[in-house]
Amino acid sequence: MTDLPVLRQVRPLAALRAPLAWPVLPLATALVLVASLAWAQMGAQAEARPETTSALAAMLRWAPLIFGGFLFNVLVSVLSMTLGTALGFPLGLLLIAHARPARALGQGLTQFFRNAPWLVLLFFVMFLLPFELHIGGLTIPLPSWAKSVLGLALPVAANVAELVRGALQSIPEPQWSAARGLAFGKLQTIRLVILPQAIRRMLPPWMNLYAILTMATTLISIVGIQDGLTITRAAIASDARPELMLPLYLFLLLLFFAYCYPIARATLVLERRFQVRG
Amino acid sequence: MAHELGPPVVVLRAVEKRFGTLTVLSDISFTVRRGETVCIIGPSGSGKSTLLRCINALVPVSAGSITVAGREVNDPRLDQRALRRDVGIVFQQYNLFPHRTALDNIMMAPVHVLRQDRAQVAARAHELLAKVRLTDKADAYPSELSGGQQQRVAIARALAMNPKVMLFDEVTAALDPETKKEVLVTVQELAAEGMTCILVTHEMGFARRVADHIYFTDGGVIVEDGPPAQLLEAPREARTRDFLDKVL
Fold it and tell me: SS3 of A139, please?
């Protein structure tokens, strides 16, 4: 019964947002991109440099490379998120552990990695880890992209841990009592009763975290990894055409936007659905 | 209820429960025999729910002894899960698992705790649903069921473990009068079949019909106990009379 007011409140808002927001924002950005290209073209012609190719041609030449770089950002984001989630889940369980030392350990790790700047953590991992690991007779190479994945996964893990803790604790206590009353053990209770309910609540903030991580992957260009941003900067520098700066950066922005915006939208939709269901 | 009573199943001796400096239960002693139905009545806040939760170790006792089917509950080496396999509990707020269907709610514990065969458990779960008159609700989620229906699923869920004793913690307190009745009928049938039941209840008429013995608690102690007719109609203690005057 309590569902109804929530539904009524939400629906008109959704109706307002949904049809408008999706096409308008990217269209506007694309329009600015085209305008900036035209502007770059005019700038070039005004300076009378006939030997240079048109801004559009330069753009078309660089776009596939930048896109490739962007795909690398996506790959790094997926790997970091996977690793961060895999590390963050047990860390989140530590945060609600009964034993005080386990909880203290979890809290220490979580607080440290949550409250450190991502870029500093990235530097830390990049320059502290060797380029290869020797375990027994085994040599495992650690390329810098792998180190960057780990560097980004650390703050992600800490944030996932907090998410897991919050979601687990948001499940009302009687669910625990009911499970204990049926002779479930603690891990069984978490796996069969608490987690399946908590995951629905975890999903929207987890996706939100992923979108933030994806945008943060451009940090790896600072520690010398060839990503979308590195290639964009190289493109601008190699042609010595500063007027291309605006369209090229806009192109990269648009790629990230096109990737992250649907995630943000889906997050909103999920949040609303779970809110209604309680 | 006219049936043979067996050996003691639940025995409480001088049970005491303190939360910090607050004493919630003191010197609680009683015995429940196999097949017996015992009701605990008394004003709110007199420790009745805590008493029930002590019996399946959801709440640890501070002193005294509770034995369930010969197993001492107030023992640091207690196998809590073994104890809880023998003791079914039904709560005031049903506490079904909202992400599972009615059938799944009933099947989960036998499948995952007792590791019984899934097909056999499913057959038994359907039988239990029929018993609580919810045959057609097997695939319904708790949110699609009324309070009374949810409570009957909760009873079936507890029964699926084949417990030696069932605890009912004010199972109709959250229900409206119509749905109350369907739950009470279910409990009454269980009691008539010889299930050992301990009920905390505010339904005096129901207690009178179903109970073999009633305990009146107030302020964490048993003030008076006796068979329903005697306790409800000719209470010896002034406190019992006061309480009954208010609720009847």
Answer: strand
Please state, in angstroms and rounded to a whole number, the distance separating the CA atoms of residues A220 and A134.
Answer: 25
Task: Count interface pairs A-B at CB distance under 8 A.
Answer: 55
Q: Find out whether B125 and B137 touch, Cβ atoms under 8 Å.
A: no
Which chain B residues contact residue A188 at CB under 8 A?
112-113
Is 60 exceeded by the pLDDT of residue B93? yes
The strand ranges marked E within chain B are 8-19, 22-33, 37-41, 63-68, 71-72, 87-90, 165-169, 197-200, 213-218, 221-226
Cβ within 8 Å, pair A182-B109 = yes
Q: Tell me whether residue B2 is exposed, middle or buried, using C-beta atoms within 10 angstroms of its C-beta: 0 to 12, 13 to 18, 19 or more.
A: exposed
CATH code of A150's domain: 1.10.3720.10
Q: How long, in residues, is chain A? A: 278
| Domains present along chain B, CATH in parentheses | 8-91+163-247 (3.40.50.300)
Backbone angles phi, psi at B88, to 5 degrees: -90, 145
Report the alpha-carbon distance of residue A59 to residue B215 in Å, rounded.
Answer: 87
Domain span including residue A188:
3-277
Q: How far apart are CA A168 and CA B95, in angstroms?
A: 16
In Å, how far is B85's CA from the nearest CA of chain A? 6
Q: Do B161 and A184 touch (CB under 8 A)?
A: no
Interface test with B, best of A170, A182, A201 (most B CBs within 10 A): A182
Tens digit of pLDDT for each residue in B146-179? 999 999 999 999 999 999 999 999 998 888 888 8
Tokens 């939208």 map to which residue?
A265
Chain B residues within an 8 Å CB radius of A182: 84, 108-109, 113, 157-158, 161
Pairing of strands B197-200, B37-41: parallel
**Domain count of chain A?**
1
CA nearest B67: which of B13, B109, B17, B26? Answer: B13
Identify how many contiguous H helices and E strands chain A contains and give both numbers. 10, 2
pLDDT band for A236, please (50, 70, 90 cuts).
confident
